[in-house]
Design a protein that fits this description.
InterPro entries: DUF6708
Radius of gyration: 26 Å
Pfam families: DUF6708
Distance between the termini: 15 Å
Keywords: Membrane, Transmembrane, Transmembrane helix
Protein name: DUF6708 domain-containing protein
Shape: rod-shaped
Number of strands: 7
Structural class: alpha+beta
Organism: Xenorhabdus szentirmaii DSM 16338
């Protein structure tokens, strides 16, 4: 907050990171399972001096393929949340009486105060309040602040 604008954040700002933490942990766990399974199979075959059958190779490739897909999904989801913007402010400019809302895709929605209907409600977490707003007029896209 300064003499020109009041800045607040989006509703989901406080909950960022929990899902990516779980996804990262799951990816590491599945990677460990894949490494341990491959190592155990090699150890078992070397102790028995048995060649691996075609059915065993197919099962191993299928299982490792599924584990690789799961690991890839976990890594992709984790990196998607870690390396994108996690702060989408809402700015209320008092000098020109405009509201600026930053979106996930990078656009900035701006609208005059008179075209908004704002309602302050108790949030999910009891110590925070959420601002719900409704755009009545056509918004202006692409304005810089």
């Amino acid at each position: 907050m300064n003499s020109t604008y009041l800045k607040t954040v989006d509703v989901q700002y406080a909950d960022k990171g929990y899902v990516s933490l779980i996804s990262f942990g799951a990816g590491i766990a599945f990677l460990c399972i894949m490494i341990w399974g491959g190592y155990s199979l090699i150890q078992a075959l070397s102790l028995r001096n048995d060649p691996l059958s075609a059915q065993g190779i197919f099962s191993l490739l299928l299982l490792n393929g599924l584990l690789c897909l799961i690991i890839f999904g976990c890594v992709k989801f984790t990196l998607m949340e870690w390396f994108k913007k996690n702060h989408y402010p809402i700015r209320f400019n008092r000098k020109n009486q405009m509201v600026y809302v930053y979106h996930v895709n990078g656009t900035i929605l701006s609208a005059p105060w008179r075209s908004l209907f704002l309602r302050l409600m108790k949030g999910i977490k009891k110590q925070l309040s959420d601002i719900y707003w409704l755009m009545i007029m056509k918004p202006y896209y692409g304005h810089s602040i």
